[in-house]
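Entry 14. Ran structure prediction on the chain below.
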Amino acid sequence: FISRNRMMDRTNEIPHDPVDARQFELNVKQLADSLTFGPDDSIYHGSGIEYSQSRVYEPGDSVKLIDWRISARTDRLFVKEYQEPRQVPLYLLLDTSASMCVSSRPLSKYAYAIRFAAAIALAAQSRLMPVGLVTCGDRRMRISPTLSGNDVMQWAHQLRRHGYREQTLLGQRVRELMPTLKRRSSLIVLSDLHDGDAVPALRLVAQQHDCMVLHFRDPAESNLRGAGIFRAREAESGRSFHATGRRKWFDRESVRRSLTRQHIDYLLLQTDGPMVAPLRAFLKARGGALEAR
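Output, structure tokens:
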């Protein structure tokens, strides 16, 4: 939490990030190399790039596909079939709101979210999965699904700059995206979930599309021990409220249950704890959900 006046005074600042552009790219690529999505065997057959099986020749089949090894052992002609690469679009919904920049650690939730978003995009593209991006703050940025890694690094560098004044519009952006999804897609949300409309909107989109939520949280959001009673102001809305150092400001378990009831997988990533290993395990276990249905 941070006062709106303080945010306005820091409009032109960049979220604290100790690395330069070159080191940032190296970090992202190292993360991408360590992330996997599990098995990705295609259920479709055609003239793809990997051998799948052989079947009996039918009129119209290309002679280039004849499997001479099997045909030589039988009195019938067989042709080879190959697996086609998947083209399941993946959309990354990145929260660019002000609260993502509030941090008690060297790197903010926002800095981590950009790193992981770019790494996930590169890892997915390596599996022939086109990746798009939708920002979920006042700043509008929408990148159509692409297999270009250069596009990923371009928007990642662009998003490293932040104005500290954006409201959270996660729920609104999800609802705007839904009508444009003409085929079943996969969505990964990277947010601190400060938007009250986020969970209802995600439950709605999950009825037709595969959805996962990466919830970023700073330790300062849990409580302020020894703070007593104090008055605070919510980062995006400017809403004032009273709290105590012992009060839980966010009911994570309630949000998790609400999401998982709609078959939305949820992972909490604490900025003061291990993040890469839990994310790797989460994506590997969740890999099958990124396949075509």
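The chain is about 30% helix and 20% strand. Will compare against last week's run tomorrow.
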